[in-house]
Amino acid sequence: MSFVKYLLLICLLASPQLLLAAEKNPHRYTPKEQIAFTSTTNAAFDHSGKLLSRSVHPDGSASVENNGSFGNVTVARRNPDGSIETFCTTDAALARSWMSGEGATRATVSLDPPVVKQQP
Question: Mind listing the pLDDT tens digit for each residue in 24-35?
């Protein structure tokens, strides 16, 4: 037999063992410590009022710009069955926990927004 025939025979005989030896990759959620948000996302989670800026217009009216704060964030995760699930929250820690596989699908968040007093 030629070298090519031996090579084909070896590949044919070794293939089932290689397929059986392949390690199955179990589903894993991303650990909380590895979940990082961008500065824009972190701003949406900020409800402190530090990012608010007040403007007085030429006509005397005033407006407040939230600069991306006081928002909510929709996050997603892939479940063990392959489905993709989304969750909307105003809390960064809760978002990380949910994305890492903790918590129920239908978690609820109660929001008690801080009141920002008008500056003189």
Answer: 666 788 888 888
Pairing of strands 84-89, 62-65: unpaired
Q: Give the number of other CB atoms < 10 A from CB of residue 30.
A: 13
Q: In Å, how far from its chain's centre is CA 59?
A: 43
Short-list 49, 56, 57, 97, CA closest to 75? 97
Whole-angstrom distance, CA of residue 61 vs CA of residue 73: 31
What phi, psi does 111 have (nearest 5°)? -115, 125
CA distance linking residue 63 with residue 84, whole number of Å: 39
Q: What residues contact 91, with CB distance under 8 A and at least 6 apart?
A: 45, 109
Residue type, 103: G
- Note the pLDDT tens digit of each residue in 70-110: 888 888 888 888 888 888 888 888 989 888 888 655 444 45
Within the chain, residue ranges assigned H as helices are 3-21, 39-45, 92-99
Rounded to whole angstroms, the Cα distance separating 96 from 90 reads 11
pTM for the full predicted model = 0.57
